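QA checklist item 7 of 12: single-chain prediction sanity check.
[x] sequence parsed
[x] length recorded as 767
[x] structure emitted
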Amino acid sequence: MSPSRRLGPRRERRTATGTLPGGRLCALLLAVTVLLCTAPASAGQADSPGSDRNGTNVGLPEGPSDGPVVLVGVPGLLWEDVTPEHTPALWEMAEAGAIGNVSIRTATSRTCPTDGWLSVSAGQRALSERERFTVCEPAPEPVVDGSGATVPGFSDFAEQNARSVFAAPVGLLGQAVRDRGGLTLAAGPGAALGAADASGRVDHYVDSARDLSAERLRGVSLAVVEMPELTSLYPADTDSGDDGPKEADPEDVPEQVREDTLETLDSRLAALVRTLPDGATLMVLGVSMDTGPSQLTVALTGRAVGDGLAGPAAYLASESTRRPGLVVLTDTTATVLDTLGADPGQPTGGRVWQTTDRPSPFEEAVVRLVDFNTAAIVVGASIPGFFSGLVAIQLLIYAAAAYAMHRYSWGERGKRAAVLSVTRVVALAGAAFPVASYLANLIPWWASQYPPLALLASVLAVDALVVALAVAGPWRRTILGPMTVVAGATTVVLFLDLCFGAHLQMNSPTGYSPIVAGRFYGIGNIAFATFATGMLMAVAGVSHALISRGRRRAAVVTTLLVGTASVLIIGWPGLGTDFGGVIALIPGLAVTTMMIAGIRITALRLAAVAVVSVTAISLLAWMDYLRPVEDRSHFGAFAEQVVNGDAGTVLARKLGAMLGTLGNWHLTLLAAGALVFLFAVLNRPGNWRIGALQRAYEYAPTLRAGLTGSLVTALVGFAANDSGVAIPALALTVAVPLTLSACVWALQQRERVPEEDPEGSHCVQEA
């Protein structure tokens, strides 16, 4: 499949090559990973609710733009607003051009128009300080000077963003155009923010899009146009008492009023297109929200031809997201500069827009974009309740299990057997909940009439199926059989998800959201915790089966093969792309492997493991750094920061974010409750003379190896990732219920072993 073509000037793309050291074993594992993953990944990261499975890459007409780049920012414009009835001109332009959703996340979770325009100006996530977070304040009115204008207070915007965590260079876009000898034009106050150079000046300025004409556009390289019609529907309430202005409520605007406004917006956009010279590049962007929580907005581009727009008819994509039909706000800056052939002078946060096939007919392509946004909105709104429910359910499982084991630890044999059986099934269901949240995305719940209920029903249904598989086969009679099935399912599902584009994680409550925009591809931190724990517990179960048959060497080799493949797919740029995950998983894998092999764990061996971890992550980062800038993941970006001496700032930001997660009482409580249950309840001697955990270790010593490795990975992951406490919280959510299921089996064997023979447990053979 041919590589995606860029919009704008044609430039030669370089491909980084390299070899992975480590002998035949690593070469074999890499070959398997490449065979499974490279083809689907290069095909645009497979399909998601807004993508096409079988797309081929297409491109715009070759060569640089023959006219200006005209960037039209329409705050609040969503794909559900674009219809042939109310926006016929925009519908025709979208049908002819390249389209996609745009993630508008800026330096804060709320993107007001001013934040969006500053981010376009800087090519990095930027922000505008305001008195109330929930109320968007208008951009300052430019001071007109001749045909141009200057944005008052522009230096303040630049200084506050230079001090922010993203160090956004406000003014970069306009300055790069000016340095190339081009002229800028802005229509509207917000547009002036986006087009201004480092001094806050634009060469030409008009008050609104209605004042634009072919004459004014002549000789201009970049024209930035603000169309605030939708924003004007939601003015802030300036008369709200002592609490100050309040955020406008979208429900306060009648649907008919919004439709009328969209028709007005459409006619003005059509009039603008008629003024464009042939060859001009038009980009229409939902640069922010008009009011309310953030959503995915409209992105559209094409070349002006006559009174309309020329193709290609495609989905937009970029290396920022690696997903067809999805780009990010800061990609706009990189795309404009690339189209003009201008050098930004420094790396931007975005990547140049590319194009890939979209579904036919056109209506289906738009429906998928709307559905993708719907899924993002529903998941975003569900996350607080989801994690609150997860914490409550897990703690309830621990409390119920503690009561059951205490209440029925002696006497009432019939009730004890029933209660322990139910406890084991419930424990498996709790451990399967995270993987069920990913598999639920195989069901198009976002297309139902009530998406939130459909999401919950899908997760519960898949959870039930995984548990049924765990307790259905002959392995249910063994101590680690059901545990291994659930852990193995978790491992396989996430491994294959990474191979085929990681879209089970996208718009999953335990994955990542395009609205939050923390990650768009690879493995997220929560998914990493789930995957790593599932893998370590799974190899513990497989090793137990092999060792019980006298095949310890095979158990060690299996652990190394599965573990190495897991490290590769987690760390490989473009697949897992998880910097901290490699650092966290290697120590846990090493501890698990040594315990399965019967090797004593010493400080010297742990130090050697630390060296291997640092070496592996350094090698992966350096290999990614050798790739072209536009193709690098955050591995290569971090390597560049190390080379430039900027890594300290990044590490300090991540450390602050990690420590800040301790304030998330949901996840902190979940982790604490799991640890208390594991070591204070399961390890507490009762009427069984020894703790249930110790009894389970006697039956299956490898359980200790898997659990210890999981705890080590969780601890290192907590220190190495900005998600902090989320890593151990989710790791324990999988590990502790799986351990509980094994402990319950061990307690059930008490009925088969004479109480007078406490050593008999060593001789019990699994059925």
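[x] summary fact logged: The radius of gyration is 29 Å.
[ ] second reviewer sign-off
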